[in-house]
């Protein structure tokens, strides 16, 4: 498996509204908003931005999501798999890998149709 670039940037915030307005002021357009203080923004054909609000006492984080066209267990042994591909609630599959410096990366691919 190889990746094909950046799919998205996932951001956590303490204030969904302020963060959404900030990125809209930078040219992003709100694609959709959820009923739990999160949403997806786009700017052209580049990676999308998903912002989710977390409690004030929780640290905020950021995750870069890499795109893959399909799932595969065919990885170079230098890539440490933290969690294998799993189906998500939003219609894709994701896996987590760790780089040599200990950072984790999410790899996302389209979900294959469920076997019936």
UniProtKB/TrEMBL annotation:
Source organism phylogeny:
Bacteria, Bacillati, Actinomycetota, Actinomycetes, Pseudonocardiales
Its protein name is VOC family protein
Q: From which domain of life does this come?
A: Bacteria
Supply the source organism for this entry.
Amycolatopsis rhizosphaerae
């Amino acid at each position: 498996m190889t990746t094909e670039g950046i799919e998205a940037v996932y951001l956590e915030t303490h204030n969904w509204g302020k963060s959404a307005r900030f990125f809209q002021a930078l040219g992003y357009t709100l694609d959709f908003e959820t009923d739990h203080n999160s949403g997806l923004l786009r700017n052209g054909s580049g990676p999308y931005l998903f912002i989710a609000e977390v409690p004030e006492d929780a640290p905020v984080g950021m995750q870069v999501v890499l795109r893959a066209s399909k799932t595969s267990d065919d990885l170079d042994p230098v890539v440490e798999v933290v969690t294998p591909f799993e189906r998500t609630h939003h219609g894709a599959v994701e896996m987590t890998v760790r780089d040599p410096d200990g950072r984790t990366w999410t790899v996302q691919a389209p979900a294959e149709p469920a076997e019936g």
